[in-house]
Amino acid sequence: MWSRRLAEAEAPRESPREALASRPRTAIILLGAIVVGTLDILFAIVFWYPRGVAPPRIFQSIAAGLYGPASFSGGSRTVAIGAALHYFIALCIVLVYWLAARRYGVLTRRPILCGSIYGILVYAVLNYVVIPLSATTRPAFLFSWVAWSIVVHAFLIGVPAALTAKTALYRSPVTEPAPATDDAPR
């Protein structure tokens, strides 16, 4: 019993990168979406909470894309819908980068540069295409929000999406060890 525990303690452990790379692509992409969505919502909370906006209201403002101003009187239902929409959008952001990276290798060879450019493109599409087509109204212009949002989209959304795509595309395949043969040199 003690010898087995000692052997387990001395066995080499895989690094976190190896552990992540051995996961199925779907799990890697979902984890990337959770990371992107969480970084984004944490930024929004850290920015708006000192200005008197509670976190539930932030999620309701996301739900306003579907429900318009009525989302702010929807209570916990529209908070949950806003959270689900937020993470769905994060999943779409990661999936789009992953799909593009399958075709264009430069996206994974230069993930910091390409990811930051992608993050800025995501910001532009969300603010100048998605929001105008939604049921919500554009908020009043606040320079600090816009400036920080562009930085956050570049480095906390685009770069993690790129690194997720790189990890998912170049993950180590999970294979069984090759059976030993009698033809092996001795």
Structural descriptors:
single chain, about 190 residues, mainly alpha, 8 helices, about 0% strand
General description of the model:
The protein is mainly alpha-helical and 186 residues long. The chain has one domain. It is 73% helix and 0% strand. The chain is built from eight helices and no strands. It is globular, with a radius of gyration of 22 Å.
Q: Fraction of residues in helices?
A: over 70%
| β-sheet strand percentage | under 5%
Number of helical elements: 8
The SSE order reads HHHHHHHH
| Spans of at least 5 consecutive residues with low confidence | 174-180
Average pLDDT rating: 88
Domain unit count: 1
Structural class: mainly alpha
The biggest sheet, with number of strands, parallel, antiparallel or mixed sense and barrel status, is: none
Summed up, what is this model?
With 186 residues, the chain is mostly helical. The protein is 73% helix and 0% strand.
